[in-house]
Amino acid sequence: STQSTWGLSPGPQMAGSLCALARTVTRIGASHVSAWREVTPRSPASTHPLYPQHISLSGFQRALLAAGSAVLALHNPTRADCVAILGETTGTVPLRALHRRMMDDPVGRDILRSRPRVNTSTLEHSALERLPVDSFGRAYLRFLNNYTLDADSRRAVTFVDDEELAYVLQRYREVHDFWHCLFELPPTVEGELALKWIEMIQTGLPMPTIAAFFGPLALPPSQIVHLSTHYIPWVLRSAPLVRDLMCIHYEELLEKPLKDVQAQLRIEPAPQS
Questions:
Q1: What is the C-alpha R_g of the chain?
Q2: 51 conformational bin, left if phi > 0, alpha if psi -120 to 50, beta if neither
Q3: pLDDT in tens, 157-166
Q4: Given 32, 40, 117, 205, which is the most exposed site by the fewest CB atoms within 10 A?
């Protein structure tokens, strides 16, 4: 589910633009920070990192980064880095709602307490290879291998000024490939957009919403028709019936048969093309 998987290129002038923006926004903001503090003073505590990757932004810096990522995301909605940073700088309200929903669910509450991570340290390929062939864990491993994906590739949350909300967003990113596997959606352009529709319905976050509505604009007409007639009706029919995907301990289901996990979570696999 990386940008290269989409098979789309933003062009030389766009390449690395958001990375450059993220690297330079602090330098640009630093020249304004003294004047900015006179207008909107920040508490001393807000300048200290709240978690290892946290970068504290002034109001000016946050607005600049949000605006820049919004422009780039709308120019090319398949730029996962743009959409991710836009979500970090503007998605506080829906993240709080998602956090409350997890707190109201026993499993969601346990996930917030234990904070499991999905990476190659916690899910070793050698351990997954020892699982039964029909298991969810083996299906997940086949998905990673077939599409040359890596559980460590998810961008770390950086700009969310709340440690709890930062973990919620990180968890959302790290279970993304589990969802691909469970819904049997390939990480193609159409498969990604179909999953974004599911994520929009399930989470209410701005990142999948932007991708769901603006992503199809990058497709040729034939793919737009296929997406709207093949995948979206299936999503609208089945996604509201699925159990809350943010309140599932996927790590505890890896040994179970994939079909049993899909039935347990009320997941109807994607229709075959």
A1: 19
A2: beta
A3: 999 999 999 9
A4: 40
